[in-house]
User: What shape does this take?
Amino acid sequence: MSQMPQPTHTPWIDRFNTPSIDPLLEQYESHALTLAQNALKGLTEIVEKEPAIEWKGLPWRWTCVYRAEGEPEPCVYLIPTPDWPSIAMPVPASVVDELLAKRGSSRYIKETLLHACQVGHIRWAEWSIQGRAQLSDVLGLAQGIINGQPV
Assistant: This one.
């Protein structure tokens, strides 16, 4: 009797085996892979620290978690969702208000912030990164927030 083939699971959903970054990114096709690698590199440069790989449960599963030096809470997350990488950030309400009122700010950033879940004085925003311009906008926002620069 032949055995039924076992479904393959990506490292992203395997709760009981902590993956490294490379297997998490191997699931992507060429364009998404390039975006994920650039996001990883850009965030690492901004935070000046390698991410930790942490299980965040559903829906984020294994996620690259960045913590700024001396900060106990994460400042940004790179989520290797199956189709496209995503970046999530807790954005202070004051920054959200400033960006929403500012002319010339990225519509992609504004739309996401406008609909992001607010908890206290923080908006939890998540951007699906499907192009270089989107990645650039999100990295710019991350840099502004993390380095305390005007956005």
Observations:
- The mean pLDDT is 92.
- The CA atoms of residues 22 and 122 lie 31 Å apart.
